[in-house]
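Good day; I would like, with your permission, to put a structural problem before you. The record follows directly beneath this note:
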Amino acid sequence: MNLYAKLQQREAAGKPLRVGLIGAGKFGAMYLAQVPKTPGLHLAGIADLSPANARVNLDRVGWQAGHYSAPSLDAAFGSRLTHVGDDWRKLVADPRIEIIVEATGNPIAAVEHALEAFRHGKHVVMVTVEADAMCGPILARKAQEAGVVYSLAYGDQPALICDLVDWARASGFSVVAAGRGHKWLPHFAQSTPETVWGYYGLSPEQAKVGGLNPKMFNSFLDGSKPAIESTAVCNATGLTPAPEGLLFPPASVDDIPFVMRPRAEGGHLHHKGQVEVISSLEADGRPIPYDIRFGVFVVFEGDTEYIRRCFTEYGVRTDPSGRYACLYKRWHLIGLEVGISVASVGLRGESTGSPTGFRADVVATAKRNLAAGEVLDGEGGYTVMGKLMRAEDSLAIGALSLGLAHEVRLVKPVAAGQPVRWSDVAVDESSLAVKLRREMESTFSNEARRAAA
């Protein structure tokens, strides 16, 4: 609870945390809005494919033009200004940078950025959760081998869920379930960029005026992003999915303890210690008042009569048995909160969530009947959506990670609702992301076999 005090101490000592940002889009811009107001921090460089767009975002979030006018990294360090360019390799290689914030949103590129950062002894705050869902467990190991920290990004829901789970366990509670909210009806799984705005309640014209990306928004709507983020949570916390994946039970905030308890006790959980996503819509489409659509939750257990009596004495909302209680945040502030991760990594050497095993996977799943020769267009597109699976089930069928389902051609047809497998596509085996994913699958498969022997 003293990150701010430690940042102030670094400021007073003239030794700010030195940070580099890769990707200055929507998420990166939100972080940039907070940087000038954070003591003990020097954002020395920004690398973006379009430096001009990065400068537009800096202006939009309130930066003074002179503050990002450093013509080089050397000039930035000499003046405590920020250099904006397109050379991420130079940014990562600079020995004065301590922490890299990876915010490109491109999982293939993010894997390369993280590995190169580790090679140069840099901590990494991984905003691109798609990369974590695809390769996070092996990235965390590579970071440990390099003696650096690999962290999920606070403000995004996975890190906030990890925080709640850690709070519950550190307080002595057993975690029954944890997860996030979402606006969900089953037919959203087949949504495309053409249908997304109708489901959101916007016209295409309104979306265009707002500069909203239909493919990105559709990745949330069709269940891909909830599956991606739930994968990250499982691999970081030890929670696991139900065998059938996410169920999206509807519930208000007050009803979460009723819904997130085992089926044998009247709830929806397959098992205790499960990750799940709560829908903000009833099955008939009616909005649920006091929902948790934009928030996160943890359900924990009062396993003694004394603890359950404490719940009652302090007005804790529980299920009818008084055994299951919930703590939650109804909103998350996305990039506006990333500074928590940067400070935690830089000042304490602690992540705000990092994979500790390979327990869950997000698998590319056909939205419709797909023919051989078609090119997959990744999350939020027309061809596939992401489905949460137990890692052992994904490995058993040779499933293709959703993060690799971008611009790859099918060599076999795949029926609607079926997972896409490695054997169904022609992948670029020279891709660093493909190599790392193959290494991760091999490593954890071998470990599982040895543990079972």
